[in-house]
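Re: the multi-chain job from yesterday

Posting the exact lines I submitted so nobody has to dig through the queue logs.
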Amino acid sequence: MFLRSRGIRPFRNPHLRLIALVGLIVPSRLRADWRQEWEAELRYREAMLADWERLDWQSRLHLLQRSTGAFWDALWLQHLRLEEEVFQDLRYGARMLLKKPGFTIITVLMLALGIGANTSIFSVVNGVLLKPLPYHAPEELIRAFERTQGQPKFPMALGNFQDYREQNTTLATLALFTRSDVDLTRDNIPERLTALGVTGEFFDVLGAQPLLGRAFRRGDELPENNAVAIFSNSLWQRDFDGDPGIIGKTVNLSGRPFTVVGVMQPGLQHVGGDYRSLPHGESVDVWWPLELRPQAGRGAHFCNAVGRMKTGVSVAQAEADFNVIASRLAQQYPRSNEGWGIRIEPLHEELVGSTRTTLWVLLGAVFFVLLIACVNVANLLLARATAREREMAVRSAMGAGRARIVRQLLTEGLLLAGLGGVAGITLAFWAIRALRALGPEQLPRLQSVSIDGRILLFTLALSLVTGILFGLAPALQAGRINLNELLKEGGRSASRGMRLRRLRDALVIVEVALALVLMVGAGLLMRGFWKLQQADPGFSTEGVLTASLTLPGARYREPAKSVAFQEQLLDRLAALPGVQAAGLTSDLPWTGYDENAGFNIEGRTSAPNDGPGGRYHYSSPDYFRAVGIPLIAGRFFTRADRVGAQRVVLINQSLASRYWPGESAVGKRFTFSSQPKEADWFNIVGVVGDVKDFPASASAVPAFYWPVLQQTTRQLIVAVRANAPSSMADRVRNEVRALDPDLPLADVRTLETISSAAVAGQRFTLWLVGLFALIALVLAAVGIYSVLSYLVAQRTQEIGIRVALGARTSDVLRLVIGQGMTLALGGVALGVVGALCLTGLMQKLLYGLSATDPWTFSAIALLLTVVALVACYLPARRAARVDPMTALRDE
Amino acid sequence: MGKGFLTFSTTVILQAVANGYLYGFDIIDISGLPGGTVYPALRRLEDTGYLSSKWEKQSIAQAAPRPPRKYYEVTRAGREALSEAVKRYRLLEQTQPIKGRDPKPSRA
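And the result, structure tokens for all chains:
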């Protein structure tokens, strides 16, 4: 300690200890003198008063009082901190960066791209995967599915639900929801509302509190209490002007009166799900209670179950508990429940689990871009470090220790990274806006993606790591400079030059390899997407307009009325000018429709819960022609296939080959009753082409079609094939209104829109990865170019000698390009190896393509080589133009 | 604090030094101002160039034993500024007694 060195005995007295303590906040380079000044005064005073032990308490207090003044003194000295080394470094670094604005702008831009892209994608990962769902205690929420041999995740039947609700011990609440839209008519204008039918405790499960009125309760499930409804906040604002007196009012929904008993808080998000549901988000307009009867059916599985576990219960425990109940039910009701169990999954997993692969692939891709940007910046800094060798050498000769020089260069690097980070956040802000607007439906929770504290922290950490990553190498290099050596050799020592060059070469190889991996990924996605587009969808994606309408039960209770409406509508639509075919159906391809039924084939027997089955659709005679589904065998429906005539069906090819392989299915029969009379048999009159569930589905599900004029349904889709489909919308609406003015037409869109939306997810991924790959390619090309430029500048003398000794232009070109291409090809080779290892991770995203597809790999390798060649050519040409006289004269 | 305008308390402190109270704690005693005012003022005055600081001779300190104390002296510029300020603060003309004839501490 300095006191001892100045010959003073160490202190133990409180006033002196206080000085030592306060001294800690004094700027370090002033500390020693400051402490000496105060201690000297205090000890002098102490000595004057007599030694501490002999002082009375008044004098002791006096001394202590004096020493407290030191605190204010130390505070005043704080402003001198700005002259401390750290701030000196920062100011110096800033000045250096401003001196070379071109360099600074390019590097900050590259870093901004890398950091900004990472921040954007991480925000998406954060919003979709990491943020908890917007409900009370979301980790307790689960989805429950009924499960059997061929169906791992099946919706729940009402009858089973009641038993599960009564008998379980692991859930606090369990509820069902199913989609069932309603029409609201006000002032003679009908409007289709998205609606869910829910059981009484639905809002309790979510923990959602109403803004006005009350939520549902069990009592609402009884038929006598059933005519109540709860509005969403947006519906209440939009259609009822936020009327505070809405509670208790009656509204007309699909022809029936409902009493409004509650309005929900704004921002309530639907949980989502695939079957008879709505997308996650604020997608619901109105909720109404499902009617639960004691003898509710156990065969019709059409509801989605969502529940909240009791505190401390695990998903495994809940599933075990439910399966005990399931086996009990299987024994009690073998016909409907034998072989059925329960599967329970956390709600979060159910909602976002499928997006995980895509998001991690995107994050990986964007991280590569950052690495490449770092490598580029490191290379540029190394080049500049070499140019600043003299400056470093002089500084070290003047007394700056090696650590100081390293620290100063590192500070410059961190400053660059910091600027890159700030610019990156700005980029990310705009990018996230774009993502939220253009993001596909398949990516749930996109609306919760935003820049929050966690994202800022992430960006800060990333900038720091980035700065250290690319700043360390040049900083360490610079620290090794020796002034003597430098001035002696007139520039650079051979061994140092070699080491630097090797480092830069290695960096370029790594950079090219990273770019290749990213480009291969993009190439694979591109080819996969192209294959997806090329695959035959089984129907015509162009020239068809569709719309949905639901005939309300109140006015169309008798089937004859419904059939009459449909026939009239078809006649009117077919008569419109420009219409080639008009049809009605229950559903459109690629929209998630999934209604199934089992049947018994004539002449065959099967196990009770394991018999043949298929997806059922309803369609009118011309539907297939309208939508472009081909006829494979037999005939389409005709108007003669109606109520009262013989029952007929059309089946698709998958059904035909599954149950009648190798023979014609036309003419065969099946039925839905277990003891069929003659009238219960359905004749197969034709086989139509397959339509897959989704573009990327492996194969089509076996399915059959009922004639809509015979087995009528009230939920209909209109499909009209016309020359200019989008312009038909108003005319179709007029025809519908002419028949029934209270019937709204909803979801008016062309098949083209639907088919495009069906691949929106893949397209989104492709665009993003493609963008990143393009950035990576440009960065890699810039890297090669800059390294070669530097090389040429270094070897100007040598080249001049060669030219003077007779080398031709082509020789010089070959020399320089040879150097550059060696690096590039090395990078390509390394990249190919890396890509072979890594692309397996994205196999799930590739349709009809292997992750190691040789064509893609070769094409990308070739592309990168050509780009590298171009990047080499420019510096090579500059080298070839070197005038030997000027080259030799320079030094 | 730029050259020119001295506050009242700063003038008091400057005058104290001019009157022979060279050490920090002495200035605190004679001026009645607290240490948290006196010391920052001394630093400011030194920054501006009205005071210069020195460490007392090592030998004197070592005899005690204690670390050498720091003392302040008024520079020529400081004398000019002081006389200006004293004119402004008339009250100061007659306030402080000149310290007794202690020998000036030898410079370190």
